[in-house]
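Hi X.,

You mentioned you wanted examples for the new student's onboarding notes, showing what a folding record looks like when two proteins sit in one file. Here is a clean example. The first protein comes first, with its sequence line followed by its structure tokens.
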Amino acid sequence: MNLRSLRKDYKKQELLETNIPADPFELFGTWFNDCIEMNVNEPNAMVLATVSGGMPSARVVLLKDFNGIGFIFFTNYNSRKGIELNANPNAALVFFWPELERQVRVEGEVNRISDETSREYFDSRPFESRVSAVISSQSKVIPSREFLDSLHREYIEQHPDGNIEKPQHWGGFILMPHRIEFWQGRANRLHDRILFEKLCDEWKIIRLAP
């Protein structure tokens, strides 16, 4: 396969300063609603990048809420990403929606959200998902798949009433951005890149070269 010949021209949309709001979260909400209307597969999937000892690592996680402050996701605090975020709160997110030829890049600082909010979300999750959050020592070495399946079965048998409390090691983070870049694919690789940069609690809008 000749990877150099793989290319696609983008022609669906445009992103101009004359039709964007002053608040990046408003634009993100509009783009996210467009994803819902277009039945984009897992529109809340995002790459989360962290840094430890100068070495970056990245993985796909799911956005579970956003507001005018930041982007919220949940994880095991003892996982690799949880440990890295506790040690270095600087992180980045990337959303890519190929159906709409759009990308959003977010950079900022994370904080843990309240335990009460984490508990409310945990209680709303399906029973099996709550079980998985409890039994999985995320990112740690385990002996086999059978070991994991056995833990899962045993825990379900021990909790036939479905009453499971959120473990202390599990909860949410909010990434509060200081940079949000909106990328809209355009023809001939002349893409639109609009950067919102937070300066003195105000958002400055900048156009970047593609």
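Then the second protein repeats the pattern, sequence line and then tokens:
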Amino acid sequence: MNALKRLRASLIIVLALVATMVPGGLASAAAPPAQGVRITPIGDPTWMPVDFHLFAATIGTATTGYAEFLQTTLDLLPPPNHVFHPALGAGPGAPHAPPYDNELAQGVAAQGFHDEVVFATSDFSGGQGVYLAWMNVPVGPTTGSSPDFSTGPIIPNTLFPITVVGTDYHNGKKFSDLADFTVPPLDQTLSPPFNVDGHSHFPLFIVDAQDFGPAGAKLRGSYQYSITMTDQSGNGWLVEAHFAIAH
């Protein structure tokens, strides 16, 4: 897997720029803002994305193999609660109890990143990129074991792998492929393995930059990250992030 594919296939994470936790259940969110984050359920998911963040940070370059991308994501969810796992990126670490809807917000603040909806071209080029990060948590009745507890609310392994596919649109036209990968179950197929019933929570990180778009593309204008997450039951979420590069 080359550096670009590793970048696209790495696990993810996001922000509280817009409070996109849907009040009162899993109803569709309001109409998308000119800039910001919107989530829409697909079917009847028993898990949901929370704690969204949209910010500029280092991703690295082709010369470095975009290694800075992985380091940025690990810095957002530091040890001991999260540790690096070769199949997960920022994976489970020391057991810690829910809720998990503020961990990324704490990481964004600790790293000095700033949630924004308007960026400069320098935020999207020269080794910098615009990240969309969020956490996924259970909202259904399923309980079981996870790396964080022996019994509690989980997204069960039977719903994994969760497929993540995404596209970035610039002024209404495709700019790049954001994502095409799966989030695995926490089971014996991983190395190192897990012996639990499911995830208590898992992060996702999406990023784009000039490097991944058409050669010579003008960067100013409006952008839309459109990401679909679907589980093995066919349920999931559409996540849309709208922002602009203005100068």
